[in-house]
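FORM 7B: Structural annotation worksheet

SECTION A. Query
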Amino acid sequence: MTAVDVGYRRVVLGALPVRLRSIAVGVAVLVAVVVLAVLSLGWGTYPVAPDAVVRALLGAGDALDTTVVVSWRLPRVLAAITLGALLAIAGALFQTVTRNPLASPDILGLSNGAFTGMLLTLVLVSTSWPARAAGALIGCLAASVVIWFLSYRGGVQGFRLIVVGIGVSAMLASLNTWMLLQIELETAMFASAWGHGSLNGVTGDALGGVLLCAAPFALAAFALVPALRQLELGDDMAAASGVRPHLVRSLALLAGVVLVAAATAVAGPIAFVALAAPQIARRLARTPSLSLSLSALVGALLLLGSDAIAQHVLPVTLPVGVVTVSVGGAYLIVMIVTEIRRRV
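SECTION B. Predicted structure
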């Protein structure tokens, strides 16, 4: 690790320079995630003090505390952290490739594609969780393929990808609404709850399956960071340094699609985490580029905090996706007002 001075304080980790402010923000967000996780594990009808939570996690607590903390609440907390991180990494990849802060999987139609796949599976195949998860995964991947082919013109350009994605998303949303109106009431109510994004049904086995599917693509995304930084200089500069722009964009989008598909398959479409987390991370660290690692930490904190609000703060328990939509709406308002003030 070597100190470098080029106008602001930073260090070099491997081949990438990292600003000291980014490291400080990352550590602060990580501490916040850990503290909120401990509080969430002790929060509920049967409250457990933070020190008892730590003892239960270390295997030194009493039997009832250990059962409540480890067996009942820990899978949900780990799911919120993991899925929030995966969605944020995917959002950072999409926004980096398209160079547009509004590019996220839910706006591009992947979430609606997953919902379509889940609905078709629910009606035509089976109501079991593995079948529904597989249907959501296939629907998300199918939507991404359609968007890819409709937007491909000798390569993938950000603006065209966003416009095509919004169009496909609108069509899939209409199809989903029509299917909900055609199926039985109980099935429609169940599907609607899943379509808002919920961590209620997430189990340890399901979370393990998500990690097994997503881990290789998350690692591939981090491996693409140096090439993505070169693309920020422009295609010609990137090509001059040996980077193949179209290939790098394609691989980054593929990794982002798989990460979103894996998260959506287990918890349903959770909106705005992928959109807001990368931009919040960038503003906190004041960096010109989106950091995948910092985005992942902010995404984990966003989803964990939203789930705590959905479970314990509001008068009624809601799907976590309802809370993330509210948080995302507030984020969009702040972003629009900030942009207007900047231009006035």
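SECTION C. Observations
The two ends are 43 Å apart (CA to CA). Residues 1-6 have pLDDT under 50 and may be disordered.

SECTION D. Sign-off
Analyst initials: ____
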